[in-house]
Amino acid sequence: MVTPAHNRLNLTFAASVQGRGFRSWRGEHSDSAAWLVKKFSDVYLHETAIAHVGRLLDGKFAHNKVHETAAHFKGRMERIADHMNSPDFAAPGGAGLLGLAKELRPRCQALIEAKGERLPK
């Protein structure tokens, strides 16, 4: 999405977004994204989901074998996926994965307003 060589929105990405009638949440394609590159983990939805997976792997779905097999790990991951897709998943506000997805745009806006500073947890 951002070309590191010049810290601007990738031209191909920008043209595609603009060509479909959308506007990037990041701003105009000529705006600098230098502030964004280091802080992007604050808005990656998958990073947020990965944090939950890690917490669940170490807690509720911790392994109980000295030498875990690939099949056992796969089973744990499937149980975590089922849990995260269930109403029992307590993401912010208890909204589950849909809540995490809906939170993405406001988090991006908050990052812009914070001028790239870390967002509070």
Number of contiguous helices: 5
Number of domains: 2
- Give the uncertain stretches in residue-range form: none
Number of strands: 2
Shape: elongated
Strand content: under 5%
Can you offer a commentary on this structure?
This protein is mainly alpha-helical and 121 residues long. The protein has two domains: 1-37, no CATH class; 38-121, no CATH class. It is 50% helix and 3% strand. The protein has five helices and two strands. The chain has a two-stranded antiparallel ribbon. The mean pLDDT is 76.
Offer a quick outline of the entry.
By secondary structure, the protein is mainly alpha-helical. The chain is built from 5 helices and 2 strands; from the N terminus they run ββααααα. It starts with a strand and ends in an 8-residue tail after the last helix.
